């Protein structure tokens, strides 16, 4: 009993935080980026004591940064003056909304409005004045991996969230400056006056690879880790009133060339609405939902027998996505388990679009509990799917120091003639132990007619610790043979899994320009529940990061595959039933992405299902001034198998030209020799507020099986949406 009390006591430890008071503005600033000449900022609370996180943790910053904070009845204001003795050296790597700030001079800040160390917001910009915003969930842990929900919704950092706010930036001989105006109705917060919020600030100087913060951040974490934030006091918040209506009109033409050709055009309309329910809850409604403006999926090469994961990109489902996330347990390729995967809604087999008739989502805080309710209905598509009703209920209680517990219920009601209901139940918890350790647990159950319930379960348990010098984790997961979350994602079926990781960090004293060495070992092992081992992988690697931004990774993989049923890995090439033990060596090289030209590539050579494989993934990035960015990549595999050989090629080019931070052109061109087709996604975007504005979208998918071309699909869409703020 005494041990339990000690453990719980440790779980509530929070580091000493910086504190400042903030006052109401005597006059509202003009949001034009000119902080120095605007008298409205003179009496605002100022912060200038920043500390380096990289390259020299704990040392003073090389350039002065002045941040000022104040608020009015409607807005929360932040300004920054980023002094720079070499203003010609300022780097702007991209000018699109939500473009990465990692490789650009930038300034950003987080706010934890509930002061619960669990949920928050991030706002940022660069010297071009782009709008960069994100939602933070789960305490912000996991935000360092790509800093977006790119591989599931549980990463702690959702950059696909788009809010309504203002920012302007200005460059000059002093360096650069920026002004932010965040409407209170964009945020969710507690009831009551004179509140205290968590806050932190980050400045990046790209050419120096320098990252600094107001509240110091240990180098193994990012600023999104809310428990490390400081505090601002005396914020007199208004009562929240918010009603936004976002109608859209759409014109679309589709041409399909096959054995029979079709050409059809249509026009449509729909709307979304956002309603505040008190100051801590939002109701989002949608009717006749359409996502014609969303960028196409990046194609993937599948050289295994398990499901591929394609991330969600639709804005309606990405807002508050972290609240609905339970499961995980995967890696960079996506989760092993996700009890709610929003791509099940409105996307049929093979990626076929399915019309969404409408629905709603209620999210926020009620009586100290996080609440999420979602209901959607999709229409019938002949030979693809019946009409379906999707329902989700999520409850989550968040406690100090990264601790929470909660549950979720999902129901997928198939409404066709042979309809049935698939239901799932899940429980999850996380216990933060001190500042550096945690225990995570999850359990799920499903109910599907004609499937036995005794094997319809899944659970996962993980313990992890993360210090400056070493990160460790150990986890165990099990999935029953009849576990069937039809509203979720399941990479494999019927397995138990052991995973472990030891990741170390060493920072020498500037020897040969070396900043950090990161030797590490990962292990993932999968067994069928009958005891047969299906997969195992030892990954032994070391990362060598230099102060110049150059990085090299050198690793060895020991791979075991138990193939119990033959499968076709490529057209005409089959992997036999057998047990395979292979070895691989790999090397990865990355140059400084803040430079106008950068390069990275991973090369893997070794055994592969009883044969040999050479794999390469070179990527070249080119940037011209602030407007033009491009990326060219190749995913290449040459495989020699006992029964034959084959090659896979996935070529991808991504081009962007920005006329301004809100007007730009994007194109995504892909060729995949596995499917013998190439595709193009071209988008002209004139963005107004958040995700509204004018979108011109052209898509083409075409067979490349020779001449004459057998099959092609072409579509052109023009979509315009507008934001009506009924409370403004």
What is the secondary structure topology, with strand pairs?
Layout: H1 2-10, E1 19-21, E2 45-47, E3 51-54, E4 65-71, E5 75-83, E6 106-112, E7 120-125, E8 132-136, E9 157-158, E10 166-172, E11 175-183, E12 195-205, E13 210-213, E14 230-235, E15 243-257, E16 262-276, E17 281-289, H2 315-318, E18 327-328, E19 337-338, E20 356-366, E21 369-378, E22 388-399, E23 403-414, E24 421-433, E25 437-447, E26 457-466, E27 470-479, E28 489-490, E29 495-504, E30 514-527, E31 533-546, E32 551-563, E33 567-570, E34 573-575, E35 578-590, E36 597-608, E37 611-616, E38 619-624, E39 628-641, E40 644-660, E41 663-672, E42 677-687, E43 693-703, E44 712-721, E45 724-725
Parallel strand pairs: 1-14
Antiparallel strand pairs: 2-4, 3-13, 4-5, 5-11, 6-7, 6-12, 7-8, 8-9, 10-11, 12-13, 12-14, 15-16, 15-44, 15-45, 16-17, 17-20, 18-19, 19-28, 20-21, 21-22, 22-23, 23-24, 24-25, 25-26, 26-27, 27-29, 29-30, 30-31, 31-32, 32-35, 33-34, 35-36, 36-37, 36-38, 37-39, 38-39, 39-40, 40-41, 41-42, 42-43, ...
- In terms of DSSP E residues, the strand content is over 45%
Q: Which spans of ≥5 residues are poorly predicted at pLDDT below 50?
A: 1-15, 143-154
What's the CATH architecture of the domain at 2-235?
Answer: Sandwich
Structural class: mainly beta
Provide the CATH top-level class of the domain at 2-235: Mainly Beta
Largest sheet report: 26 strands, antiparallel
């Amino acid at each position: 009993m005494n041990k339990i009390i000690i453990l719980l006591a440790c779980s509530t430890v929070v580091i000493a935080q910086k504190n400042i008071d903030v006052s109401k503005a005597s006059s509202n600033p003009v949001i034009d980026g000119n902080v120095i000449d605007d008298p409205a900022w003179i009496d605002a609370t100022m912060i200038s004591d920043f500390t380096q996180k990289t390259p020299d943790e704990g040392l003073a910053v090389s350039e002065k940064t002045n941040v000022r904070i104040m608020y009015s009845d409607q807005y929360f204001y932040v300004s920054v003056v980023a002094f720079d003795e070499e203003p010609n050296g300022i780097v702007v790597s991209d000018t699109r909304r939500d473009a990465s700030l990692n490789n650009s001079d930038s300034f950003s800040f987080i706010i934890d409005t509930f002061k619960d160390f669990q949920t928050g917001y991030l706002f940022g910009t660069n010297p071009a004045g782009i709008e960069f915003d994100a939602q933070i969930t789960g305490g912000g842990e996991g935000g360092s991996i790509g800093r977006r929900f790119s591989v599931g919704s549980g990463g702690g950092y959702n950059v696909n969230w788009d809010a309504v706010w203002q920012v302007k930036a200005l460059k000059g001989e002093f360096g650069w400056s920026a002004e932010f105006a965040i409407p209170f109705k964009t945020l969710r917060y507690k009831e009551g006056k004179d509140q205290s919020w968590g806050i932190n600030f980050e400045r990046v100087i790209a050419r120096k690879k320098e990252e600094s913060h107001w509240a110091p951040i240990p180098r193994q974490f990012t600023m999104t880790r809310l428990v490390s934030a400081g505090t601002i006091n005396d914020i007199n918040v208004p009562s929240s009133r918010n009603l936004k209506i976002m109608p859209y009109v759409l014109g679309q033409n589709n041409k399909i060339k096959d054995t029979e050709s079709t050409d059809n055009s249509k026009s449509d309309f729909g709307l979304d609405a956002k309603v505040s329910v008190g100051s801590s809850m939002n109701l989002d409604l949608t009717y006749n939902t359409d996502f014609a403006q969303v960028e196409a999926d990046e194609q993937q090469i599948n050289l295994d027998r398990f499901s591929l994961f394609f991330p969600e990109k639709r804005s309606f489902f990405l807002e508050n996505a972290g609240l609905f996330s339970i499961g995980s347990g995967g890696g960079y390729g996506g989760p092993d388990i996700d009890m709610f995967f929003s791509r099940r809604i409105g996307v049929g087999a093979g990626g076929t679009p399915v019309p969404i008739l409408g629905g709603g989502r209620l999210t926020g805080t009620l009586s100290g509990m996080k609440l999420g309710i979602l209901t959607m209905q999709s229409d019938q598509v002949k030979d693809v799917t019946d009409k379906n009703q999707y329902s989700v209920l999520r409850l989550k209680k968040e406690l100090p120091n990264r601790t929470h517990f909660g549950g979720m219920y999902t129901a997928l009601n198939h409404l066709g003639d042979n309809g049935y209901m698939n239901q799932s139940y899940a429980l999850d918890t996380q216990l933060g132990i001190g500042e550096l350790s945690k225990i995570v647990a999850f359990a799920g159950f499903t109910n599907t007619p004609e499937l036995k319930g005794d094997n319809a379960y899944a659970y996962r348990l993980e313990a992890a610790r993360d210090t400056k010098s070493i990160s460790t984790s150990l986890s165990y997961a099990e999935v029953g043979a009849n576990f069937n979350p039809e509203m979720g994602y399941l990479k494999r079926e019927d397995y138990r899994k052991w995973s472990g990781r030891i990741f170390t960090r060493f920072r020498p004293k500037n020897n040969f320009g070396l900043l950090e060495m990161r030797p590490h070992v990962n292990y993932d092992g999968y067994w069928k529940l009958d005891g047969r081992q299906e997969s195992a992988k030892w990954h032994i690697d070391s990362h060598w990061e230099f102060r110049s931004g150059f990085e090299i990774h050198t690793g060895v993989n020991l791979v075991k595959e138990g193939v119990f049923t033959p499968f076709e890995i490529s057209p005409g090439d089959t992997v036999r039933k057998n047990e395979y033990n292979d070895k691989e060596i790999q090397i990865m090289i990355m140059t400084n992405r803040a430079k106008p030209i950068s390069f990275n590539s991973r090369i893997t050579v070794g055994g592969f299902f009883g044969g040999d494989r050479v794999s390469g993934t070179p990527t070249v990035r080119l940037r011209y001034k602030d407007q033009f960015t491009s990326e060219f990549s190749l995913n290449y595999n040459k495989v020699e198998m006992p029964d034959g050989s084959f090659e896979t090629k996935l070529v991808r080019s991504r081009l962007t030209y920005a006329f301004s931070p809100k007007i730009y052109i994007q194109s995504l061109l892909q060729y995949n020799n596995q499917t013998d087709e190439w595709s193009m996604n071209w988008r002209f975007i004139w963005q107004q507020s958040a995700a509204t504005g004018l979108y011109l979208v052209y898509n083409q998918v075409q067979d490349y099986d020779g001449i004459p071309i057998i099959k092609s699909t072409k579509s052109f869409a023009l979509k315009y949406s507008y934001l009506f703020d009924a409370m403004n």
